[in-house]
Every structure is written in C-alpha cells, then in structure tokens.
Recover the amino acids of this structure.
C-alpha cells in the first residue's frame, strides 16, 4: 500500500472523528449518526493499513497519526460510555424499575403450600 491511499484514509478517518467528537459534545444526534456511518465505511481501509506495519513503521508521521487516531477513538468511546450512563440514570429517574417480581417469592421466603408428600413434623404419632 503506497503513501497516497494511506494518507487519504487517515485524512478521512481524522475528519470523521472530529465530526463525531463535535456531534458528541453538542448533542447533535443527526451529526453523530452521520459521523459513525462514515467511520463504519472507513474501518475496512483503516484495518488494512493497520495490518501492513511496513507501510506505517517506515514513516514516523503515519505512525504518529495512527497513534493519535487510536487515542481519539478511545477518548470518544469513553465519552460515549459516559453519555450512555447519564442517559440510563435519567431514564431510571423518570421510569423507576420495579423492585421485585409480582408473583415470585423472595430469597428464603417460606411457601405456604409446599407440595405433596412433605411432612411438617407437627402431627407425629407416638405409641407407648
């Protein structure tokens, strides 16, 4: 793989990562979906670049750009996870989950009707 397609793919990935980060910080759902769709289309080309270490190890600038991309991906992933937690907490505040099931017995709860053949021990017959 020569330097031109590698540089082109890296440029496109960096552009979509910047768009993703901007959409994430501004709560732009449409921009977020467009940026993720663009990143998804670029993943095969980026993985091809990553699989050919001779193409990026020979050029320190390309290796540096790849490091920045992986750092940006990790940071955006962490931001997205934080947003997800905030959304889950807000949803739990609006619609609290039920504490227990309606018809299930709690742990260690005693059943009234245990079943056939079980002896309670209260009516033992003693003979002298």
């Amino acid at each position: 793989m020569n330097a031109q397609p590698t540089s082109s793919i890296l440029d496109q990935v960096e552009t979509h990562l910047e768009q993703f980060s901007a959409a994430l910080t501004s709560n732009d759902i449409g921009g977020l979906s467009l940026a993720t769709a663009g990143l998804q289309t670029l993943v095969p080309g980026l993985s091809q670049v990553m699989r050919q270490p001779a193409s990026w190890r020979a050029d320190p600038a390309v290796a540096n750009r790849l490091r920045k991309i992986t750092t940006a991906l990790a940071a955006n992933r962490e931001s997205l996870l934080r947003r997800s937690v905030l959304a889950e907490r807000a949803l739990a505040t609006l619609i609290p989950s039920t504490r227990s099931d309606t018809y299930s017995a709690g742990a260690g709860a005693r059943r009234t009707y245990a079943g056939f053949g079980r002896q309670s021990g209260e009516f033992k017959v003693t003979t002298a």
